[in-house]
Amino acid sequence: MDEPEMQLKGKKVTDKFTESVYVLANEPSVALYRLQEHVRRSLPELAQHKADMQRWEEQSQGAIYTVEYACSAVKNLVDSSVYFRSVEGLLKQAISIRDHMNATAQGHSPEEPPPPSSA
């Protein structure tokens, strides 16, 4: 065989070999194997991220509930100012009645000043 013919056959063999390797490297089962390897390597990290996110969500929900409860308590305090004013008026009235009763019990009217004490 002469040299050019040998080179042509060698080129054909290497081309067929390259094509076979390319087909094998890109075969669907190889792709699935590579996908499986990727999932196996990255799944633990993804599971940890998911657990972290769930924990952060629970903490956030707790904080949101606390803030909503505090806002409700403040709103209720503002709404109860009417009742506080009513209690304040009743306390002033009770003090006035107490002073009147004390003055009556001492024998003089609350409008008159108490008698001077003899010293």
Automatic annotation (TrEMBL):
It is found in: Lysosome membrane. One of its GO terms (biological process) is heart development. InterPro entries: BORCS8 (IPR019320). Keywords: Lysosome, Membrane. One of its GO terms (cellular component) is BORC complex. Its main location: membrane. It holds the Pfam family BORCS8. Belongs to the BORCS8 family. This is BLOC-1 related complex subunit 8.
